[in-house]
Amino acid sequence: MATEYLAAPGTSESDLETPALVIDMDVAEGNIARLQSWANANDVDIRPHAKTHKTPLFARKQIEAGAIGVCCAKVGEAEVMVASGVRDILITSQIIGERKINRLASLAAEANIVVAVESEGNVRQISEIASNLNVEIGVIVEVNTGMNRCGTAPGEETVALSKLVDSLPGLRYDGMMGYEGHVVANRDFEERKTEAVRSATTLVETAEQVRAAGLDVKIVSAAGTGTYNITGMVEGITDLQCGSYIFMDGDYLEVFDDFDPALSLLSTVISVQDGYVVTDAGKKSISEDRGLPIVIAPSGGTVLSLSEEHCKIEVSGEASNLEVGDRVRLRPMHGDTTINMHSHYFLVRQGVLESALEIAGRGRVR
Ligand SMILES: Cc1ncc(COP(=O)(O)O)c(C=O)c1O
Predict the structure, then answer these.
(1) Mind listing the pLDDT tens digit for each residue in 214-227?
(2) In 90-119, which ranges are continuous DSSP H helix?
(3) Cβ burial, residue 239 (10 Å; 0-12/13-18/19+)
């Protein structure tokens, strides 16, 4: 099979084949530096969620800036990171079943691996496999602090599971996490603040109960991009799991402008019709799970609909001058799910391609 032709470094952005997922590197690096300097000033650690960028290069940039490691959602993502030399990984999802736990244990032979748990059977199986393979796996209990997705109930249930983890061979009890995903993108700052503080306080209080039971709670991890400066101010929270801040997306830009947009999708007009144009980016290259993409340039375009490989855009103003072959720059409302569809990023500085970067962790959902 012929390999994909990828534009050479130095190519102008306007000459990239489309649809092309473009990262403005100056902006992405600026976002990394901005969150890190906020964290440094506020005495909290950053453990960014790598499920957003899914690439060792960006993990390395985050760690070089001062992050204490990265989070991953799946063993497959963690395998990509470890293979590239990332040595501190927190897996924020429960890893279930013998085969996956075996893979987890293999990673723990090479790197510091911490995994989230919430059920006794899972904890016992991780302990058994880790002991048989003679490795130590760090374990944190995921606490349901209000999102009502996964997690143990705060208080007694978390204390009991923490004690079990602490008592079993092959496991190192590290602490707990509680992701306030139900509120991270709330557009109202006061509402976001009230609920994020409540959620983080619940987590910190539970950590205190576990400490009162005699355990050492090192990790009390929480937060997404939209709550970094709320959860990060709650005394007792040790590290922040923000992911989207690195690139931002249309959804988060409706929450705040604390970070700048680095991610866009370049597409090309393939048809000009009466009142609308069609470009070559559809559901297979830009997600719509959080709403239709936004037209960044030219001005005056509004996305009407996506089909698999077509984007229908209503045109007025500057966009009415679009001709076949012209470029339209789109912003996805949701970065993570858009990135997951692409094999490469096109990393750009000031409109010129620096490199095409394989998105090694994309599709690593197992
Ligand atoms: C457990 C967990 N932590 C952190 C994050 C990162 O959140 P964000 O992308 O909002 O920064 C997510 C995102 O869904 C998550 O599921």
Answers:
(1) 999 999 999 999 99
(2) 98-108
(3) buried
Q: Ligand 1: which of 184, 230, 256, 289 to mutate, most ligand atoms within 8 Å of CB?
A: 184
Q: Which domain holds residue 348?
A: 13-22+258-358
Using alpha carbons, list the distances in angstroms from residue 163 to 218, 290, 323. 14, 40, 66
Global model pTM greater than 0.90: yes
Give the residue whose CA is nearest to atom 14 of ligand 1.
Answer: 181
* Region class of 22: left (phi > 0), else alpha (psi between -120 and 50), else beta: beta
Q: Which residues line ligand 1 (CB under 6 A)?
A: 49, 52, 92, 179, 181, 184, 224-225, 241-245
* Top mutation candidate among 148, 241, 249 for ligand 1, by most atoms within 8 Å of CB: 241
Domain count of the fold of the chain = 2
Residue range 303-315, pLDDT digits in tens: 999 999 999 999 9
55 and 194 assigned to the same domain: yes
Rounded to the nearest whole angstrom, what is the distance from the C-alpha of residue 230 to the centroid of ligand 1? 15
Final residue before a domain boundary, out of 221, 246, 271? 246
